[in-house]
Amino acid sequence: MRTLIKLSLVIVLLICLASCKNESKQQKDMAVNFATETAPTKKLSLKEPPQAFKDYWYAGKAEITSYKLEQARYGEIRNGKAVLIYVTEDFLPNKQVKADNQNPNNISVLKLNATKKFNTGLYPYSVMQSTFYPVSNNQHAIKVTSSMQEWCGHVYAQLNNRDKFEVSAFSYFESEGDQNFKLEKAILENELWTQLRINPKSLPTGNIKIIPSLEYSRLKHVKLKAYNAKATLSNDTFSIDYPGLNRTLAIKFNPNFPYDIESWEETFKSGFGKNAKTLTTKATKLKTIKSAYWGKNSNGDEVLRDTLQLN
Question: What's the pLDDT tens digit per position in 135-187?
């Protein structure tokens, strides 16, 4: 009888152990699934950026560079100004917006706000593109946005990096209207301008597929998708050739850290009908400053615009 009782106790103990082990495995699987669902869309690298990078980009200031702009539009070259504003900030990977507070789950991004202002005869154009690219420098930007204002109206586009690229686009043109669609992931032209600033040698080269900039797709009214391209990298120039678009882009940069952008040229057919011509947009550096510009908002701070030659 005692033997039978002992045997029964052993069997119960084994069942309990198996049940606990199985429950532990289920909890672990649930934790993995939860982590997968809530993890950033970017797979983050744990590698620390070089000290020189941290000293330059985590000093509490933005890098602001002004450029003389010669913009091709409607078959003519228009004079204007371009500004590239680079700054690091904490970013929420799931909401994909700037974080209001510091949090261990935040992602450090190098943000680029690229602006252009030029006139087309009587009326002005204002263009801005924002790219949020992880300092970890792997895969793709987390988010890209673009807005364009002129007297006919304004357009806006936003690309979010999730399971696929999710695009929302709005326009006053009937043919473009309000759109929401998804794209298979490919290299984003917008992100290359920021990837270059982290490490030019990491830029993709060869025959590849690239999604052109949001600015270009709206100015030229071409479908936003990946196009065949050939990318090349020399000591100080990164170039892209889109044969299907008859368009080229060449970015010249300082080959030494912080790899600042000296100039760029973009060649494409500008205008419509008989006025269409192959023209080259050019931007040439004027001045660079480091500034916590968000605090420079008094009338007395306008002198900094003189420094950047923007007035």
Answer: 998 789 999 999 999 999 999 999 999 999 999 999 988 888 899 999 999 99
Report percent pLDDT > 70 for the chain: 85
Q: 80 in the Ramachandran plot: left (φ > 0), alpha (ψ -120 to 50) or beta?
A: beta
* Cβ-contact 189, 219 below 8 angstroms: no
Task: Write out pLDDT tens, residues 76-117.
Answer: 999 999 999 999 999 988 899 988 988 888 999 999 999 999
Most confident residue range from 22-26, 39-43, 59-63: 59-63
What is the DSSP code string of the chain?
-HHHHHHHHHHHHHHHHHHHHHHHHHHHHHHHHHHHHHS-SS----PPPPHHHHHHHSSS-EEEEEEEEEEEETTEEEEEEEEEEEEEEEEETTTTEE-SS--TT-EEEEEEEEEEEEEETTEEEEEEEEEEEETT--S--SEEEEEEEETTEEEEEEEEESSSEEEEEE-SSTTT-SEEEEE---EEHHHHHHHHHH-GGGS--EEEEEE--HHHHHHTT---S-EEEEEEE-SSEEEEEEGGGTEEEEEEE-SSTT--EEEEEEEEEESSGGG-EEEEEEEEEEEEEEE-GGG--SGGGGHHHHHTT--
On the question of pLDDT at 42 being above 80, the answer is no
Q: Where are the domains of the chain?
A: 51-307
